[in-house]
Recover the amino acids of this structure.
């Protein structure tokens, strides 16, 4: 009975080890390269984690030395690049993140908005 329990424990440990190895092998090597270059860390010091994915891209968090960067990779190939930071808001509007590409885009409703009136109306005589 004890021998059977030991064999089961060994099989579970092997399955977990294989699963962890499979997870780390699923990350494209470009994720580590881009992250290490962006953070200026040795590649051996970099840790990665898949944050989210869409139909076209995967977003990874890559970190070392208490810093992190976001890396976007296409699902078709190993094309990876650093994700752009969120642009600042302006004129009462903000950029929206595209849920498919995870890139920041100008909101169309904001782009079609009428321009703000100029200040000359404040100085015109009544």
């Amino acid at each position: 009975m004890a021998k059977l329990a030991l064999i089961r424990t060994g099989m579970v440990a092997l399955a977990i080890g294989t699963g962890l190895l499979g997870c780390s092998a699923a990350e494209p090597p470009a994720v580590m390269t881009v992250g290490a270059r962006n953070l200026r860390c040795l590649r051996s010091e970099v840790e990665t984690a898949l944050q989210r994915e869409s139909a076209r891209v995967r977003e990874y968090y890559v970190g070392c030395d208490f810093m992190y960067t976001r890396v976007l990779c296409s699902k078709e190939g190993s094309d990876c690049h650093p994700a752009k930071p969120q642009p600042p808001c302006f004129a009462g509007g903000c950029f929206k993140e595209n849920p498919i590409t995870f890139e920041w885009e100008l909101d169309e409703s904001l782009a079609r908005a009428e321009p703000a009136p100029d200040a000359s109306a404040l100085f015109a005589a009544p």
Observations:
- The first strand starts at residue 47 and ends at 53.
- Helices lie at 2-25, 29-39, 108-111, 120-123.
